[in-house]
Amino acid sequence: MTGAAALGCVLLSLGSALAQDLQALSQDPKNWPMAPRDYASTRFSPLDQINAGNVGQMKLAWSFSLGTDRGQEAAPIVVDGTMYVVGPYPNRVFAFDVASGQVKWSYTPNTDPASQGVACCDTVNRGAAYDNGKIFFNTLDMHMVALDAATGKELWVTKLGDINKGETMTMAPLVVKGKVLAGNSGGELGVRGWVTAVDENTGQIAWRAYGAGPDKDVLIGPEFKPFYPQYKGKDLGVSSWPPDAYKIGGATMWGWISYDPQLNEIIYGTGNPGPWNSMQRPGDNLWSTTMFARNPDTGAALWAYQETPHDLWDYDDINESILLDLTINGQARKIALHPGRNGFMYAIDRTSGEVLSADAYDYVNSATGVDLKTGYPILNNALTPELNKTIKNVCPAAPGAKDWMPTAYSPRTKLMYVPHQHLCMDFQVGEVGYIAGTPYVGATVDMYAGPGHYRGEFLAWDPIERKRAWAIKENFPVWTGTLVTAGDVAFYGTMDRWFKAVDARDGKILWQFQGPSGFIGQPTTFEGKDGVQYVAILSGVGGWPGAIASAHLDPRVRNGALGFAGAMQDLPMYTQGGSTLLVFALDGKGLTAHANTNPEPAPKDPPVQ
Hints:
By secondary structure, the chain is mainly beta. It has one domain (35-43, 57-597): 8 Propeller (Methanol Dehydrogenase, Chain A), CATH 2.140.10. The protein is built from five helices and 38 strands. Strands 1-32-33-34-35 form a five-stranded mixed β-sheet, with no helix packed on it. It has a four-stranded antiparallel β-sheet with strand order 2-38-37-36, with helices on one face. Strands 3-4-5-6 form a four-stranded antiparallel β-sheet, with no helix packed on it. A hairpin with a 2-residue loop joins strand 11 (174-176) and strand 12. The radius of gyration is 23 Å and the shape is globular. The termini are far apart.
């Protein structure tokens, strides 16, 4: 063996060990070390101190204001009794002692104020990631930052893009085998999308895979073995677009990444093609709205599946994929369960990219189904956009049946818990020109409640039976993530200020708390050094649907916020912006709950109320 080969083996072994260490952290019930909790993106916690029988006794233990009243979408992550939270612009980071609520340290990056002007859908941030004693997060102005988890000391800062082109970053990164993975936002500003891997120790870019363009840019090579034949041509990321249109065609990556250590593949989806006026970009527009599997070591594409070829309606494919091993039609399969923005719940073989099933989980009339032989959606041609003609009653609306808000899965109930919206729209396309760093949309949109006149739903979906188990209708879109526990409790929040706990088996509401602002964050649960189980969520309405309240848009302008304002005109009557971290425990006091379950002496300092 040569020295180079030996070094390669050592590096591969080190990378594998790092992945195993982080995986072990996520398997410890006390921790929540990454936004999805685990690599499979289940958002399931084995903790059961809080359960369906006693969650009604849960009260506020402590709270903290992050100081920025914009959309609060981040997941509080926890490792070994310390919580790490990232706020929206300017993306300040806080570290707290979980049991007391005391601030251990805070860090404020030098985020460029101009980045606020190119953020399409509020200045949100979806959270941080942890590995090897370091905290990683992204700033709105296209920087990735590494901090010492113990002290908050800045370790490195890497610039990944350019806000002058319309790029921003809002996603929570994921660390896999020593690489920090993240992608860009800006699909409504004519950017070129990508996912990038950064070395966690040096901050150097390890690889970058673009969402469109020639194979060498998309990292399509000998390892690429897609299931469907339409993806086997050369440089399809160029030929499926008008000349050079892929360079300003979006296909960003601002959502969720899952990782299968056994297959050594990451799975994620790309965003919409640009502009929204599909008549300006004939072709399938590969590789937008596409699920990719890649080798995390090199970025090499392994397979791909495009959910929405030649996207007509802004159906990004950035939603989460939950990785499960299930028996499908009597056969054990490695499955990626993916609630598509187009309204279909996909079960995809994650070894090949084959679509095994695709069932509507909300009202859909933009398509009638998915052809499993070809993978293509069966479109409703009566709704095809025409220049300067208003196409009425398209369902789902541009945010899809479900947007970024992550689903949870319980191995106890075998159900998925899906937060989503229930909206339709009127849609008119118009010609648009490209100017760097400015909106590149070419559509006027007006959204409204779907059939039944409700705007959101918390849905329990049975992936084996491929049908709804139960659902709770909500007045507004359910724009929070979800959490489910071994105590058979599922948590979610509403935009009209309610944080709710329901029985994961039947959907019965067991507890609810009215927060200071609407909820669009991600609930997490963990155990403090005091042996107490806590539940945390950020309260602060905003994001795409909540901009009318937090950014004070004129509710009379129905097509404001890319059309979402029309569906949310009454939201300011229920809530305004906020920035409060809320942490709950049984009886509200960690010390009281601790004394009830373990008669050790209580700490001298009580937790902050």
